[in-house]
From TrEMBL:
Designated name of the protein: Aerobic magnesium-protoporphyrin IX monomethyl ester [oxidative] cyclase
Cofactor: Fe cation
InterPro entries: AcsF, Ferritin-like_SF, Rr_diiron-bd_dom
Lineage, top ranks: Bacteria, Pseudomonadati, Pseudomonadota, Betaproteobacteria, Burkholderiales
Domain Rubrerythrin diiron-binding: from-to ranges: 90-220
EC assignment: 1.14.13.81
Matches recorded under Pfam families: Rubrerythrin (PF02915)
Highest taxon in the source lineage: Bacteria
Length: 358
C-alpha cells in the first residue's frame, strides 16, 4: 500500500473531488422525461406516508456545528499519524463528493419534471443532501480544504445513467451508506476513546437520512415491478457486486481509517455487507453470498490487483502502463468470476418498508 501526499490546499481537495477513477464518486445525468412518467399509484399509501416523514423534517436542526467543534478537531488531530490524516481527508472529500453528487442530480430532476410525486421527493432529497455536503465542507474548512461546490458542479465530468441504473446504484449507495455510518456509530458507542473526530457524533441521525433516501428508491422500484424481474435481475446482480467490490478495495487499500476506529477492515466490511444484504431483500429478489469462500477469496484478489496497479501507476513509463493494462485485465476477469458465483434468491416481502433497527 502506498500513501499519497497529504492534501495541502483547497485546490488539492478540488482535484481529488473531480478525479475520475473506479473508486471515486461520480456526477450523473439521466432521462428526465422517463423520470416524469413514473407512476406511484401502485404504492400510494406507502408513498404518501414517506413524503409525510420528509415533510416532518426531523433533522432540520441536526447539521449544526457546536461551538466546541473546531477546538475538538484541533486537539484530537494533533496526535494523528500522516496516514490517518491523509486517509481522513480522503474520506471527507469522497463523502462530500458523493453527497453533493446526489444533491446535483436530485435538483436537476426536480427542475426537469412536472410529475408532482417525483418533483416533491426530489426537492426533499436535494434539501437533505445539501445539508450533508455543507456540513462535511465545514469539516474540510478546519483543514483549510473547503471545496468550491459551485465550481465542482461546473467542472466535474458527468456520467449518463438510465433511470433504472440510477435506482439500483442510488438505492445501494444510500443503504450501504447507512450500514457504514451506523456500524461506525455503534463501534464508538462501545469505544468512545476511539472517536478521533467530532463528526462521528452526528452519524446516527445522519445515517437515518441515508436510510430514508434508500426507502424512497425502494418504493419507486416496487411501483415499477418490471425493474425487479427478468433480465433486469442481471443488472441488480452487477450493481450489488460493483458497490461491494468498490467498498472492499477502497477500505483495504487504505485501512488506516477503520483501524483508527478500532475495527478490522475485513470484519467491518462484511458487517456492512450483512446489514446491506438484510435490508436490500425488501426490494431485490436476489442477494450475493458474501460468506462463500470463493466470494471472499475473489474480493481479496481484487485488493491484491489494486495494490499492484497502484505500484505500476507510480512506476510510470511504458512498463508502468503495460503493467496497469495487465492489472485491468486481471481485475476484469476476477470481477467476472465473482459475478458468476451462485446467488441467493428470495421472495419480495409484502411489507415494503424496513425500520432502521441496526
Amino acid at each position: 500500500m502506498t500513501l499519497t501526499a497529504e492534501l495541502q490546499t483547497p485546490e488539492d481537495a478540488a482535484r481529488l473531488a473531480k478525479a475520475e477513477t473506479m473508486l471515486t464518486p461520480r456526477f450523473y445525468k439521466t432521462d428526465y422525461a422517463a423520470m416524469d412518467r413514473l407512476d406511484m399509484s401502485p404504492i400510494r399509501a406507502e408513498w404518501d406516508a414517506m413524503l409525510a416523514e420528509y415533510e416532518g423534517d426531523n433533522n432540520h436542526d441536526h447539521f449544526t456545528r457546536t461551538p466546541e467543534f473546531a477546538a475538538e478537531v484541533a486537539a484530537l488531530s494533533a496526535d494523528w499519524s500522516p496516514q490517518l490524516r491523509r486517509d481522513f481527508q480522503d474520506f471527507l472529500v469522497s463523502s462530500l463528493t458523493s453527497e453533493y453528487s446526489g444533491c446535483v442530480l436530485y435538483n436537476e430532476i426536480a427542475k426537469a419534471v412536472s410529475n408532482p410525486d417525483i418533483k416533491q421527493l426530489m426537492r426533499y432529497l436535494t434539501r437533505d443532501e445539501s445539508r450533508h455536503a455543507n456540513f462535511i465542507n465545514q469539516s474540510l474548512k478546519d483543514f483549510g480544504l473547503q471545496v468550491d461546490l459551485v465550481g465542482l458542479k461546473r467542472t466535474k465530468a458527468y456520467t449518463y445513467f438510465k433511470p433504472k441504473y440510477i435506482f439500483y446504484a442510488t438505492y445501494l449507495s444510500e443503504k450501504i451508506g447507512y450500514a457504514r455510518y451506523i456500524s461506525i456509530y455503534r463501534q464508538l458507542e462501545r469505544h468512545p476513546e476511539k472517536r478521533f473526530h467530532p463528526i462521528f457524533k452526528w452519524f446516527e441521525r445522519w445515517c437515518n437520512d441515508e436510510f430514508r433516501h434508500g426507502e424512497s428508491f425502494a418504493l419507486m422500484m416496487r411501483a415499477q415491478p418490471h425493474l425487479l424481474q427478468g433480465a433486469n435481475t442481471l443488472w441488480i446482480r452487477f450493481f450489488l457486486l460493483a458497490v461491494y467490490a468498490t467498498m472492499y478495495v477502497r477500505d483495504h487499500t487504505r485501512p488506516w481509517l477503520s483501524e483508527a476506529l478500532g475495527m478490522d477492515p475485513t470484519d467491518y466490511d462484511y458487517r456492512v455487507f450483512d446489514i446491506t444484504t438484510a435490508i436490500s431483500r425488501q426490494v431485490f429478489p436476489l442477494s450475493l453470498d458474501t460468506d462463500a469462500p470463493a466470494f471472499r477469496a475473489g474480493m481479496d484478489r481484487l485488493c491484491t490487483i489494486a495494490v499492484a496497479n497502484d505500484r505500476a501507476k507510480a512506476r510510470g513509463g511504458l512498463l508502468g502502463k503495460l503493467q496497469q493494462g495487465w492489472c485491468a485485465a486481471r481485475a476484469s476477469l476476477c470481477f467476472a468470476r465473482l459475478y458468476l458465483l451462485p446467488v441467493k434468491h428470495s421472495e419480495l416481502p409484502r411489507e415494503m418498508r424496513v425500520a432502521p433497527s441496526w
